[in-house]
Amino acid sequence: VDSKDIFALPTEAVGTIMGPRGTIIKEIQNETGARIFVDKDEQQGSNERLVRLHGSLEQISKAKATILQHLDEWKRNHGIGGEGGGEAEVTEFVPVPRASTGFLIGSGGSSVSQMQVETGARINIAQGKDDTIDGNPVRLVSLMGRPPAVQAAKELILKRVKQWEEEGSAPFRGTGEGGAAGEEDTQVDVIIDPKDALGYIIGRQGSSINGIEQECAVRIRVIRDEPLGRIVISGRPRDGERAKKLVLERLDEWKNDVGGWVGGAKRG
Question: CA 266, CA 257: separation in Å to the nearest integer?
Fold first, then answer.
């Protein structure tokens, strides 16, 4: 059975580690039997690129160790992390079920903030497009900090995912009806009238809509080519209704505080 590992490399080190025309990476693949893929683009908001390893656990372990040896050599050659400089920071990526992200983040980001305080690592849950493992949608959680802090954060994340699974994959279990294990996804349509409010609801570069997706563990699609704006929310019924409520709150904000002002005077 194929396994998968994901970790990050500094963008400036990628060329050296891959070698001319990828010769070093090809050698590592031949020696270890692992399949190695290096992202062409940086992760949003960072100067790092993801490396994805596929193969058996033994193949992945050997390939990752070899790549990290090349990274250590690159750091020494560039005077990074020398003696007396303390333990260098690392970045590790942990894939988690997409539907678990709302539970991991917590209300208003409370859970992820607490994990950062407890471990000392910086934790970020990827937004936007899902990755897939064995056909299942996942989100990548990036952990940054000193190795002990990153390891502690990884263990805590995995513990939280296990808790989410044991509670029936229901972030809001016990707060009311719904959220039972095996509950099928439903679709909720939200009409946006006036259509001009769509941009505010989506947020700069999709930040607001992505935040709702993460907090509620739903998928959101924006329909623009209709007379009125429409937002389609897919997920468990309880999650979908919660996301709908947040979308309508954004619409009310636009009506009351943003779109309601024209030429310095309040509309209506």
Answer: 9
Q: Is the peptide bond before 194 cis (omega within 30 degrees of 0)?
A: yes
- 1, exposed or middle or buried, with CB in 10 Å at 0-12, 13-18, 19+? exposed
CA 163/CA 174 separation, integer angstroms: 14
CA distances from 25 to 11, 77, 194 (A): 15, 19, 53
Cα–Cα distance, 16 to 63 (Å, whole number): 16
Q: Name the maximum alpha-carbon separation found in the chain.
A: 72
Cα separation, 240 vs 212, in Å, equals 10
CA atoms within 13 A on the CB side of 47: 4
Q: Which 8-state DSSP code applies to residue 88?
A: P
Note down pLDDT in tens along the chain; length 268 residues: 567 888 888 888 898 889 888 899 999 999 999 999 988 887 766 788 888 888 888 888 889 889 988 888 888 777 776 444 456 777 888 888 887 887 888 766 778 878 888 888 888 877 666 677 766 778 888 888 888 888 899 999 999 888 887 765 443 333 333 344 445 668 889 998 888 888 888 888 778 888 788 777 778 888 888 888 899 998 878 888 888 999 999 898 888 875 554 444 444 4
Token pair of 165 as six digits: 């699974």
